[in-house]
Amino acid sequence: MKHFEKFLVWIAFNLTDSRFLLFTKIQGILWSIADIALVYFFLKIADSARIRYGELPIRKRYLLLWISAALTPLLVFATSLKQIFILESVVCGIQYAILIVTVIGERRRILKLYKE
């Protein structure tokens, strides 16, 4: 616990606005990478189910995912917390919209695939 207390004291005396902005950018990029991976692998599962049952593969949702991935590095150029918030809202909004649409639209196929 002593190390944690030292860390908190260090933060209290050394966390400037610019460092906070930097750490927020890093956190946003890391979360976006994790979200992209989550959505990508879920799309792969849904795609497998679609192909198994003779339907066309998913394309537009992959395109939207890659657009969100392309927007993620723009966080590096954000100069304020408001810009980071807006950009992260757009990026995560796209990613979670894809996830919701896929879960709702593909649920029967995916469940049927895993019951086999």
How does the SSE layout of this entry go?
Elements: H1 2-14, H2 17-52, H3 60-71, H4 81-115
Helix pairs in contact: 2-3, 2-4, 3-4
Could you characterize what this model shows?
With 116 residues, this protein is an all-alpha fold. The chain has one domain. Helix content is 83%, strand content 0%. α2 (17-52) packs antiparallel against α3 (60-71), α2 (17-52) runs parallel beside α4 (81-115) and α3 (60-71) packs antiparallel against α4. The longest helix is centred in the first third of the chain and has 36 residues, at 17-52. The chain is elongated and about 60 Å long. The model has no long low-confidence stretch (mean pLDDT 91).
- Spatial gap, N to C terminus: 50 Å
Tell me how many strands there are.
Answer: 0
Unreliably modeled segments = none
Report the average pLDDT across residues.
91
